[in-house]
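Support reply, case 0932

Customer input (verbatim):
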Amino acid sequence: MAASVTSATPRTAVFFHAHPDDEALLTAGTMAMLAAEGHRVVVVVATSGERGQADLAPGEALGEARVAELYKSAAALGCARVVNLGYGDSGLAPGGGIAEDRPANAFIDADTEEAARRLAEVLTEEGADLLTIYDPAGGYGHPDHVQVNRVGGRAAELAGTPVVLEATVNRDPLLASLRLVRRFYPQLDVRAFERAYSPAEEITHRVNVRRFARQKRASMAAHATQATGADTRTLGVMLKIPHLLYRLVFGTEWYVRRGLPPGTRLRHPLESPPKG
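Our regenerated output:
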């Protein structure tokens, strides 16, 4: 089935993320694959990520640096367009949850309908065939990621985008892989992932992106502010993994398409589910 998709009329896929570097972690292989197949790939971020952890102090300078990194990542993946909706990075409270010191224009506080209309304008302009968002829990629970699910789902309704996929991770192999990596890098903390993302039975798409591991790694490497610093950063640890192990750990990307029959298993984001 997937092979027939690659020879089909080029489609347009829009990948909606909360912050620069989210695309590298969750969907970069899929983006590179679709671009290589001749499809138009557009990445949209809700914020500049100006409250992320980095050597630069949080604020405008960090936001500008992270957007520049996003463009570098997009180029490595073959993206045709980058859009920043310009909302404020909501940040993350210590221990998780919504930060009390978030900016006045924080994405988590944005009116869902208004934000959805702005994203829908991009979807309509692009004639998007596919939109990716996050699962309802926002993956690991970041407030901006939860908002991506709400805003993206509504935007697809407004624009009439036919396929919406929730980018996620299969929790079981994720934990197994991270525990393997921890044998080489014991400082890696896997506890935050024990209740994150989606259980295996909900996942409808398992996309093999091993052939695009180099592009995915280049996408991660583009986000230098998020890979370096005084503290050991998860992204930095990921980039130290040997290439063969990297292909194994990051060679599959997972999505959930709601409304499909239980047990649906697809291998390509543009693959049509079986009828009946």
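We compared this against your earlier run and they match. Two observations from our side: The mean pLDDT is 91. Strands lie at 12-17, 40-47, 81-87, 130-134, 163-168, 205-208, 252-256. Please reopen the case if you see a mismatch on your end.
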